[in-house]
Amino acid sequence: MKTILITGATSGIGKDLINILANKNYNLLFIGRNKRKCEDLKNFLENTKKIKTNYYISDFNDLNSVKKMTEKIISNTQKIDALINNAGKVYFSYKKSLDGIEKSFQINYLSHFLLTSLLIKNNLFTKNSQIINVSSVAHNPNSSINSLDKIKNKEFIGKINFQDINYKNNKFKGFSSLFYSRSKMAQILWTYYLSDIEKNISINAIHPGLLGSNVIYENGFLGKIITPFFKLFFKSTAEGAKSIINLLDLVFEQNLTGKYFDEKIESKSYSYTYNKIHQKKLYEESHKLLEKFIKI
Ligand SMILES: NC(=O)c1ccc[n+]([C@@H]2O[C@H](COP(=O)([O-])OP(=O)(O)OC[C@H]3O[C@@H](n4cnc5c(N)ncnc54)[C@H](OP(=O)(O)O)[C@@H]3O)[C@@H](O)[C@H]2O)c1
To answer: What is the DSSP string of 197-240?
Structure first.
């Protein structure tokens, strides 16, 4: 039986994903940050779906917690056939994580980089294993979410600012999609680089669609007001989950790697993401930021 590990399974796309996969004869493991939500999900899967499952707790805002949680997975698990790096949030203003790193970059990208690197280093993946990074069309500066930043922050949009990766020298005022977009671009650059160096694992990225979820909820009063409209006007998160499962099945059948999917269709990501120098540079910078955690 194949084992699938999913991050961010307690809400939105991840929750629908695990619910659908529970009908498909997989061994399912998940990661969440909230113990009560994890317990509720485990009880639902075990009592209603009649499958055994296990969960791990980690707040991706804290890299130490990501490392400790990954060590537990490593000691309890023999192999992972698919890792779905799905956890993520939109933060419309500059915030720092517990580690002092820009929050969207850490939660959406760097924590997954740490989790994945430790699993690879400890040989948890086998020859036909796959990794799916849940990215977003927001990585592309031409996507509508970036319209304001194309005017306000045009020198930062559509690239990784390697000379000041933590935006230490820039004070951003007001709302910006820059932080989210950059984190989602980082996931794609990393997907392409990793798929080049890890020849035994299939690694792909996907934009799951524009879906009504809680992804923008953590933006103060405005996030709470906008979220119900978001859920009303966008497609359901189950549609995003189905697109991820479509990719999962396709990769198990055909071993595709280094691809970007827009929902169910293989697509081109933004031109910047194909630059091998940027891919390598981001990989090396990410390693530097995580140096003390990756050495175990
Ligand atoms: N919705 C869209 O339109 C859309 C479009 C493109 C891409 N995406 C991507 O799809 C993925 C899933 O998002 P969603 O739309 O399903 O949003 P969501 O409903 O807010 O779900 C996000 C998941 O990530 C978890 N998470 C957030 N912060 C975390 C942290 N610090 N540590 C550990 N887990 C954390 C959440 O945990 P809690 O349950 O505890 O909150 C939740 O399970 C994200 O990567 C998002 O960027 C979404």
So the answer is: H-TTSEEEEEE--SB-SSTT--SHHHHHHHHHHHHHHSBPHHHH
Does ligand 1 come within 6 angstroms of the Cβ of 10? Answer: yes
Q: In this predicted model, what pLDDT tens digit does every residue of 118-135 receive, in sequence order?
A: 999 999 999 999 999 999
Give 49's DSSP letter. S
Domain chopping of the chain, boundaries: 3-294
- The predicted pLDDT at position 171 comes to 78
Residue 83 has what DSSP assignment? E
CA of 58 to the centre of ligand 1 (A): 14
CATH architecture of the domain 3-294 equals 3-Layer(aba) Sandwich (3.40)
Calculate what percentage of the chain has a pLDDT beyond 70.
100
Residue 199 has pLDDT above 70, yes or no: yes
